[in-house]
Amino acid sequence: MKCAIVIPSRMGSTRFPGKPLCDLLGKPMVQWVYEATQRAEITDQIVVATPDQEIIDACASFGAKAILTSADHPSGTDRIAEVSQHLKVDFYVNVQGDEPLIQVEDIKACAAPLFEDATVQMSSVMAECPENEIENPAVVKVVTDLNEFALYFSRHALPYPRNPRETPVRKHIGIYAYRYEVVQAFAGWSQTPLEKAESLEQLRFMEHGIRIKMAHGSGSALAVDTPEQADAVRKLLAHRANEG
């Protein structure tokens, strides 16, 4: 069973243009992500997928393979679908390029269901949601069936606590693994009603009947969507360096 890790990364972020190359303690953010995927040791096929020559050049400077993709892709999964036309493996792990604090164990946890069970088409990761994030719509929540396949993802708290909750609220960690055939199918599907309502691309898979196995992880301390979050990440990285 062969897999590849693909890191979608683009300069054109609305809230933080150029964020993949923002400096974090002397390294561009995308390098932090790339090095975390290397430490996961699940594959030697790791590529950055980007529409931007600046990112291609930056990746070359630290020895990462990068593939130039179309600028028209609406999502990271669409970008991976283009990569899959040139790099065919059994499945792909999508690690977002704005997760410089991604946990190596979360990458391994995401890939494990597809390594272990040929019937699993797609997987992702969840972690217990801190109390102060439950009502935050920027933090996506997930509920599962008894076999830990996702039932639904939402920006609302799930489940609604009409009665006391018997299980903790779970937040979704935005890392995915999916088989080649699933990625190819996704690229041919139009946006779906629930996906549009929640602005969550994983719902497109579910609306087309793809079951998503949820693995347990610890979750990134912080993704980067704004310059202020980049400053917070710098402080966390500096603190870790001082401790280590």
Give the tally of β-strands.
11
Total of DSSP H or I helical runs spanning 4+ residues: 8
Proper CATH architecture: Alpha-Beta Complex
Radius of gyration: 17 Å
The assembly state of the depicted protein chains is single chain
CATH class wording: Alpha Beta
Give the topology string: H per helix, E per strand.
Answer: EEEHEHEHEHEEEEHHHEH
* Largest sheet features: 9 strands, mixed
The residue fraction in helices comes out at 25-40%
Structurally, the number of domains stands at 1
Quick one: CATH superfamily? Spore Coat Polysaccharide Biosynthesis Protein SpsA, Chain A
What percentage of amino acids are in beta strands?
A: 15-25%
* CATH topology assignment: Spore Coat Polysaccharide Biosynthesis Protein SpsA, Chain A
Contiguous uncertain segments of 5+ residues: none
Distance between the termini: 36 Å
Q: Which outline best applies?
A: globular
Word description of this protein:
There is one protein chain. The chain is an alpha/beta fold. The chain is built from 8 helices and 11 strands. The chain has a single domain (3-220), classed as Spore Coat Polysaccharide Biosynthesis Protein SpsA, Chain A (Alpha-Beta Complex), CATH 3.90.550.10. Helices cover 33% and strands 23% of the residues. Strands 1, 4, 5, 6, 7, 8, 9, 10 and 11 form a 9-stranded mixed sheet that branches. It is globular, with a radius of gyration of 17 Å.
